[in-house]
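We emphasize that the prediction below concerns an isolated chain of 222 residues; any contacts that depend on oligomerization or on bound cofactors are therefore not represented. The input was used exactly as deposited, without trimming of termini.
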Amino acid sequence: MKKIAQAVMVAACLMGAAGAANAQLGGLGSMMGGGAKGGADLGTEVNTFVNQTASLSQMASRSVTAINMAFKSAEQREQARAEQAAAEKITDAKERESRLAKLYESQAAEAKRLYDSGEMKARMATLDSASKKQVGDALLNFGIGTLQAVALTKTGQSLIAKASANPMNISKIVPVKDALPLLGQVVSDSGSFMAGVVKLAQGAKIDVPTPKADSKPVDIVI
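Result of the prediction step, given as a token string:
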């Protein structure tokens, strides 16, 4: 998973820049005037960003949920499946992104618990072939999501910087600011416990392809 490691290194720099941009956003209210052109274009760009982040949130949450489900009972799997489906059915992109971000946080915390407790290590090799494939596919998708999170962080930083030229754009850029923490968490998790999950999977002879910029996500049915 060298691509993920590289993505984490790049994202560390981007997160610092995004933090500075967020601080800058907080001071926009005191600015007067502003000569930025293309305000309407900014709104379109923000909408695109929100839609892309919602898609990333869906893939990341679905990936971690799929990994967790391999170690859960039938009842627990059904509950996780229902929660994921309910979040994905939300039509408003901003609301869907927010709901999926919260779902990702809870599922990532559970995956980290399984990893840190040693339960995941103890059971990984005992999974049946279908569960092993699901874990491998989910890890590939998560890796692809990490690369996307790095790119979206850079886009978000650019949009916030663009908005700084006109205080009238504050309300337009808020969804971008709100989405940055999820992007940062995905990248951070990929370089911490999720990297350990990849090693466990490989140790259990599970195929985990290295994600590339042009890699296509696998359709995972949970």
